[in-house]
Automatic annotation (TrEMBL):
SUPFAM superfamilies: ARM repeat, Leukotriene A4 hydrolase N-terminal domain, Metalloproteases ('zincins'), catalytic domain. This is Aminopeptidase N. Zn(2+) binds at H289, H293, E312. Its EC number is 3.4.11.2. It is an enzyme of class 3 (hydrolase). Its main location: cytoplasm. GO terms for biological process: proteolysis. GO terms for molecular function: alanyl aminopeptidase activity; metallopeptidase activity; zinc ion binding. Belongs to the peptidase M1 family. Binds 1 zinc ion per subunit. It catalyses: Release of an N-terminal amino acid, Xaa-|-Yaa- from a peptide, amide or arylamide. Xaa is preferably Ala, but may be most amino acids including Pro (slow action). When a terminal hydrophobic residue is followed by a prolyl residue, the two may be released as an intact Xaa-Pro dipeptide. Residues 455-590 form the Peptidase M1 leukotriene A4 hydrolase/aminopeptidase C-terminal domain. It is found in: Cytoplasm.
Length: 592
């Protein structure tokens, strides 16, 4: 990889191999200030051509740049380009191929990769909180860095913060929650920039096993530890399937509800939404997904965001294998069917041209900049299809060999296809045709020959829903349904329903006000599309308390079509608690 169109960096000339951060957290000003020192590997150390280092930045104030010499440090000339709305500003540093370059800087209070929370927005309500979200290209908003997954580096950090707060990073943090106001961490394995992560708050630790544990606020740590108690077992089964876990510890940090994603696979320290902690482990597939990234994504990484399926498609496949091994085939089958149904329903109304944009071939150069996409499901579906064709006895060793061969490397689709042909297709000819492979790699949509997951329990749910819609007869036994069965019932229901049907269902099963964020997401989406005002107060409370995009954006989308004024009113109240990424997404929906 020599160029990533989502980055100004020039890794063909020079690459960061190690990063040293020295940062101070200022909660009053809502900024990080300090320095980032890059240890550099120059491609050509002899000539004077290409003697520049280009780093990605977004809204950073650069205070000075120095280069290391045999006698110490010397100031270097630098320039900051005019910023692009999407990519930020290129920081170009003139060097004499210095082995190390230090950039002193401070972030902006509006950094897109950081969120600063007032005490009232936390579980404890006493201390403030701060956390980062670097994926996809937000690391550049809090560190001047080669912000492309094609560049991997180890890092070390010294961080100072108010002494009452605990600081954690995507690194070796240890397991003690003793607070000193001064913290030193190390990440010895090379990672891409989007896996840089930091958090600070009233955090304590609860062990889950020898290699795993939960960090959370004192009010939520015990409940989270109970919910995630199967983490060590998940690690064990994944190692049996796909090789050793190579990151030392696997800990989880439960963030406040404003976290915009279900989870973020920061190595050694997954950041997780509290919306999956509901007491019945029905949503722990999110944890299986983030753990799976320790193999697919963190260990073997896409070399640009064009090849997002190599991260997310592989991870969704491994996630499903983890869920099956720990929770059983039926649970895994229901999870797969839910994802496939959502994708197929979304694709069915599209024209061929729209389909090519929405779900192109896996070898297509996407327009991914951190937006949600159905593309990763196609990648997961492709791998499941390969597994079915070749059998697990053949496919599992192939996938394990893939993780071994490309460990701690960044690759693209061409690299994978070459590996596939060399180590699977050529060794087992006549199992997959070139036309079938091309259908996955180059043609839009899901190939017609791809089998869909069929869950016997969902067939019962489908019959119950159809009967209810036709006769008004409530589904028998729905009081004992799992989260997945309720999602199937609601996801396949029409977006717009009569107030009488909604009232009947709500009175029987108490969907309004549910603590289950996944069920609430779909229920309130229907509520909004149907203008069922009886549930508006609870819907508004849900949108105000939760900032996870998967859960709130569909509701705003539905409200935008029925009551945009109400949506804007709710957003105005909820916005102070939203992450900048969520805020921008809602603004796009509401046309603000």
């Amino acid at each position: 990889m020599t160029h990533d169109r989502h980055s100004y960096a020039e890794p063909a000339l020079v690459r960061t191999t190690h990063l040293e951060l020295d940062l101070a957290l200022d909660f009053d000003e809502k900024v990080l200030a300090g320095s980032a020192t890059h240890t550099l590997a120059w491609t050509d150390t002899e000539s004077h051509s290409g003697d520049r280092l280009v780093l990605d930045t977004r809204d950073l104030t650069v205070l000075g740049v120095e280069g290391q010499t045999a006698d110490g440090w010397e100031p270097l000339e630098y320039s900051l380009a005019m910023p692009d709305k999407e990519l930020g500003a290129a920081l170009t540093i003139r060097t004499s191929k210095h082995p190390r370059v230090k950039v002193s800087y401070r972030t902006a209070p509006t950094a897109t990769g950081l969120q600063w929370l007032e005490p009232a927005m936390t579980a404890g309500g006493v201390m403030p909180f701060m956390f980062s979200q670097s994926q996809a290209i937000h690391a550049r908003s809090w560190v001047p860095v080669q912000d492309t997954p094609s560049v991997r580096f180890s890092y070390a950090a010294h961080v100072t913060a108010p002494p009452e707060l605990m600081v954690l990073m995507s690194a070796d943090n240890g397991t003690t929650s003793r607070r000193t106001g001064s913290y030193d961490v190390v990440m010895p394995e090379p990672i891409p920039s989007y896996l840089l992560a930091i958090a600070a708050g009233d955090l304590v630790f609860e062990p889950l096993g020898e290699r795993s544990g939960v960090w959370a606020e004192p009010a939520t740590v015990r409940q989270a530890a109970t919910e995630f108690s199967d983490t060590e077992e998940m690690m064990r089964v994944t190692e049996e399937l796909f090789g050793p876990y190579r990151w030392g510890r696997y800990d989880l940090l439960v963030l406040p509800p404003s976290f915009p994603y279900g989870g973020m696979e920061n190595p050694r320290m997954t950041f997780a939404t509290p919306t999956v902690v509901i007491g019945d482990k029905s949503l722990v597939s999110v944890i299986a997904h983030e753990l799976a990234h320790s193999w697919s994504g963190n260990l073997v990484t896409q070399d640009s965001w064009d090849d997002i399926w190599l991260n997310e498609g592989f991870t969704s496949y491994v996630e499903n294998r983890i869920v099956e091994a720990v929770y059983g085939t039926e649970f895994a089958l229901m999870e797969t069917a839910i994802k496939q149904h959502a994708t197929v329903v979304k694709l069915d109304p599209l024209t061929p041209a729209e389909l090519a944009v929405e779900l192109p071939g896996l070898h297509h150069r996407s327009e991914y900049h951190g937006k949600t996409s159905t593309g990763p499901l196609k990648g997961s579906w492709f791998l499941s299809w390969l597994e079915e064709r070749f059998s697990r006895e053949v496919f599992d060793p192939f996938l394990r060999g893939y993780f071994d061969r490309f460990a701690f490397r960044s690759i693209n689709t061409d690299n994978f296809v070459e590996h596939l042909r060399e180590h699977l297709l050529s060794e087992h000819p006549d199992v997959v045709t070139d036309d079938e492979l091309a259908a996955w790699l180059y043609e839009p949509g899901i190939p017609a020959f791809a089998a869909r997951a069929v869950s016997p329990r969902f067939q019962v749910v489908d019959e119950a829903r159809d009967l209810w819609l036709k006769t008004g007869e409530l589904p028998h036994g729905a009081g004992q349904w799992t989260t997945q069965e309720w999602l199937r019932f609601l996801d396949a229901a029409p977006d717009v329903l009569s107030p009488l049907l909604l009232q009947q269902l709500d009175r029987a099963f108490g969907l309004t006000g549910t603590a289950n964020g996944e069920i609430a997401r779909r229920w309130y989406q229907i509520v909004a599309a149907s203008s069922y005002e009886a549930a508006y107060a609870e819907m508004a409370e849900f949108l105000t308390k939760v900032g996870r995009m998967k859960l709130v954006l569909p509701v705003y989308q539905a409200l935008a079509g029925t009551d945009r004024a109400f949506a804007a009113e709710v957003f105005a109240k909820a916005r102070p608690g939203y992450h900048p990424i969520t805020t921008a997404a809602v603004q796009r929906i509401l046309g603000q």
